[in-house]
Write a structure and sequence with these properties.
The complex is a heterodimer of chains A (274) and B (302). Chain A is mainly alpha-helical and 274 residues long. Chain A contains twelve helices and no strands. Chain A has a single domain, classed as MetI-like (MetI-like fold), CATH 1.10.3720.10. Classes of the chains: A mainly alpha (274), B mainly alpha (302).
């Protein structure tokens, strides 16, 4: 930038300060992960930081305790159906709002996104008596329903973004050329929004995987998820076992994040070609 | 080629344009039907439960306004709502002040540097909230990192009890909310045409004046979107205040969970929830008004 060359010294100093502050804040953002990782390899039973010695004892304890594997299984058994249902409902809603020519598209979109914005505790105490009445309380299904409600907006937003990036005329062309609506969707529309659908689904899964409030109200001792188990352990005693579990969960989420970035990069490339 | 085809079909009998219209209309009607399933699901498992909570606040245990009377006049409930609003406001302002310079620097960054900075923000966003709150417990506890540093440097003689406490709640919540402020700001700032700022400089404005008179007003949509998001999410926040806040810094969501799950006072929990809902919806409507008001000017400036 030519303007920067002529900038007075005090502005250049200010700029460097600004850069320093920004980096400091970014480091603050990722700091907790760097506290938990060494802590999980500590050889002491209380949380001293930095640890005085190293061991893998806490990981062994997780492997030996069936509660952790049970909770991990519950989290998957709730998260995967949640992602699937969110993808179906979120995509349907996004197609209808983007292509339906609704008179009140803005209001409809606000209604679909609302579960993401409102405090989850309200949804939790509303769903609890309902699930009790349906006889679903403490089942996977109860948590799946609750998590799908907050997962739909995520898919809705990502699919909406994907839909707004391509031309409506392509669908009309397919229909004019004799494709029925079903063929049009699977052969024209879906391939173009596929990445948006999958990214939304992964976001919904990640949200379910990390959700605590609905899990506290809707799951029971046999169906509790990982966040709930960590929560219960945290209120009782603080040992590095939680740090070890947190590190494993963090590694897993990081893997999901990498998948999402690869998908995003690939969809960007396809677009620039098309 | 395209225009030739259009003239051939269109000129003689006007059939095709009308036909196309019918097709387009049919397609959009078909699309409208897709809305039935998601609306039914959200209506049944979101709208209905929330309506039943509001209903319950007026009838459980006896019909009337008893629950709201208790919220207003008895016990720590009103204070808890006040603490919730206060905390949400403090967290929003702190997030804005901290996120603005970060987003500003990120919006100028290019290539690998930008990718690295974005990765740091997104990684933080993706780390479990429970885990991040746990990390702050490790930092703030009596034998924690912060106390060790304070005693070692001689700032305090004895470890300070940060937990449970307001400072720990605010630091933890700002940390968790920060990505939700940075990302809207960043999206907005990257869309701001920097040549406008350069133009101001060329015409004699100092960098500070160019920032204040040109860049800052253009970044208002990002500021309002990020602030609304952080404020609304902070209002319903549970994990961090519950772990780090304790009984003296009890935010509404913690209070509601306690009333319903442990004390089984569902009527009071429903009334508190309804008030919290009202607060959140008001903030959302206020934000929509601000956006609608600012949109004309913003679109013009772009």
């Amino acid at each position: 930038m030519p303007a920067e060359i002529t900038m007075p010294l005090r502005y250049r100093i200010f700029n460097m300060l600004l850069l320093g502050v920004a980096w400091a804040i970014l480091v603050y953002l990722v700091l907790p992960q760097f506290i938990i990782l060494p802590l999980s390899f500590s050889n002491q039973s209380y949380l001293s930081f930095p640890p005085s010695g190293w061991s893998t004892e806490w990981y062994v304890r997780i492997a030996e305790n069936p509660a952790w594997s049970q909770a991990a299984w519950n989290s998957l058994a709730i998260g995967i159906p949640t992602a699937f249902l969110s993808m179906v409902f979120g995509t349907l809603a996004a197609l209808a709002v983007a292509r339906g020519g609704l008179g009140r598209a803005g209001l409809t979109a606000a209604f679909i996104v609302a579960p993401m914005m409102l405090p989850h505790v309200i949804l939790a105490i509303g769903l609890y008596p309902m699930m009790l009445w349906l006889g679903l309380l403490n089942s996977h299904a109860a948590a799946i329903v609750g998590h799908t409600v907050i997962g739909i907006p995520l898919v809705f937003i990502t699919v909406n973004a994907a839909l707004s990036r391509y031309n409506l005329a392509l669908e009309l062309a397919a229909m004019t050329l004799g494709a029925n609506p079903w063929q049009t969707f699977w052969k024209v529309t879906f391939p173009m929004i596929r990445t948006g659908v999958v990214i939304g689904g992964i976001l919904a899964f990640a949200t379910s995987f990390d959700e605590l409030m609905l899990a506290l109200f809707l799951t029971g001792a046999g169906t509790r998820t990982l966040p709930r188990l960590i929560w219960e352990q945290m209120n009782d005693y603080l040992t590095p076992t939680i740090a070890a579990a947190a590190t494993l969960i963090f590694a897993f989420t990081l893997l999901l994040l990498i998948i999402v970035s690869i998908l995003q990069a690939r969809s960007g490339r396809v677009e620039s070609h098309g | 080629m395209q225009s030739h085809g259009a003239t051939v079909t269109r000129s003689p009998q006007e059939i095709t344009p009308a036909g196309e219209e019918i097709r387009a209309w049919n397609a959009s009607r078909l699309y409208r039907w897709l809305l039935v399933a998601p609306i039914a699901f959200i209506g049944l498992f979101f709208l209905w439960p929330i309506m039943s909570v509001i209903h319950r606040s007026f009838v459980d245990p006896v019909p009337g306004l008893g629950n709201y009377e208790r919220v207003l006049f008895a016990g720590p409930y009103l204070k808890s709502l006040w603490i919730t609003l206060q905390t949400a406001a403090i967290v929003t302002v702190l997030c804005l002040v901290i996120a603005y310079p970060v987003a500003y620097v990120m919006a100028r960054a290019r290539g690998n540097l930008f990718a690295l900075m974005t990765a740091m923000v997104v990684t933080s966003l993706w780390t479990s909230v429970v885990i991040r709150s746990y990390a702050w417990m490790v930092v703030f506890q009596r034998r924690g990192v912060l106390n060790q540093a304070l005693v070692a440097t001689g700032i305090t003689e004895h470890p300070v009890n940060f937990l449970p406490g307001t400072l720990a709640v605010n630091v933890g919540m700002v940390h968790i909310m920060l990505p939700f402020m940075i990302l809207p700001l960043l999206a907005n700032m990257r869309s701001i045409d920097r040549s406008l700022v350069l133009a101001a400089g060329v015409m004699g404005a100092s960098p500070w004046a160019a920032f204040r008179r040109v860049f800052l007003p253009l970044s208002i949509p990002g500021i309002s979107a990020g602030s609304a998001l952080v404020f609304m999410m902070s209002l319903g926040f549970f994990i961090t205040p519950s772990l780090l806040g304790g009984p003296r810094h009890m935010m509404a969501a913690v209070m509601i969970e306690q009333q319903a799950n442990r004390l089984l006072d569902w009527g009071l929990a429903a009334a508190l929830s309804s008030v919290l809902l009202l607060l959140t919806v008001s903030i959302y409507l206020l934000y929509l008004r601000v956006v609608r008001h600012a949109e004309g000017g913003f679109a013009h400036a772009r």
